[in-house]
Amino acid sequence: MKSNILCVGIVSFMSLWVHVSAGEYPRTVRVHLGGSSSQNEFDWSDSGGSKAKVASPGSDVGLQFLHQIPSAPSLSAGVDLNYAKLSWEENQRVFPNVLNRSRFESTTLMAVLKWSKPEGTFRPFLFGTVGVHSTSFFLEIKPEEGMVWSDTSTSEPRDIVDGRGSSLAAGFGGGVDVYLSPRIFFGVELRATYLANANYGVTGFGESKDFTDAKGDLSFANLLLCVGTRF
Fold first, then answer.
1. Could you tell me if 170 and 130 are in contact, meaning their C-beta atoms sit under 8 angstroms apart?
2. C-alpha distances in angstroms, 157 versus 26, 99, 154, 164, 215?
3. E strands within the chain?
């Protein structure tokens, strides 16, 4: 419920902002692409396991729309849409007699407030974001080498967690843009994103193995290359 209200608020905020300032001050559209990494661990002790890192580094892509604030040329406000796909963290021994692997992928939609140097070739910037996330989390297990599942005598991976959860999100970042002309630029950016607590859902097989839930907060960091235009 909180996520839905905040999402409506972000859209309403942007609609009002464009209505007030469109056609008078510079707008910016920037696309970013790069890598993502998470140091998060989930504690599976309630399900007979131990702590485990949730994912390995992966990819990230996103789009940002900004509108300059008329009374403060160094400040811009807008919307940031981002998709991060972390890779499998493989071959962990968290549970007895099995190997497990896990990963997550997340889409965030956030309002952004950004400070940047308004003029010059090199323009450093800082920004903060708040919004919502929709995140999928995956956890698989398979028997260790030489062992099989008791019900089928096979050794294929089986899903313990395969679900999507949503909640609030927040982040911050900074970097520098290099202007090739008054309207065209490229840049580099470092950002961090926090994904508030969500429940990702346990499969039927997971429930048969005494998994009761899979919930927690997550976070990831990105190193990104950006290109954009002002108009």
1. yes
2. 52, 9, 9, 20, 21
3. 27-37, 41-43, 51-53, 56-69, 72-87, 89-92, 98-116, 122-143, 158-179, 184-199, 215-230
Average pLDDT, the chain: 87
Q: How far apart are CA 212 and CA 223, in angstroms?
A: 35
Question: What is the secondary structure of 3-22 as a DSSP string?
Answer: HHHHHHHHHHHHHHHHHHHT
Tell me how crowded residue 42 is: count the other CB atoms within 10 A of its CB.
Answer: 21
Using the Cα atoms of residue 151, residue 157, residue 159 and residue 160 in order, give the sign of their dihedral.
positive
- Predicted local distance difference test score (pLDDT) of residue 6: 57
Rounded to a whole number, what is the largest CA-CA distance in the chain? 70
Per the CB < 8 A criterion, the answer to whether 227 and 192 are in contact is no
* pLDDT of res. 137: 95
> How many other C-beta atoms lie within 10 A of the C-beta of residue 148?
12
**How is residue 180 annotated by DSSP?**
S
Containing structural domain, residue 12: 2-18+27-230
pTM beyond cutoff 0.90: no
What distance in Å separates the CA atoms of residue 131 and residue 56, rounded to the nearest whole number? Answer: 25
Give the CATH number for residue 168.
2.40.160.20
Instruction: Label the pairing between strands 89-92 and 158-179.
Output: unpaired
Count up the domains in the chain and report the number. 1
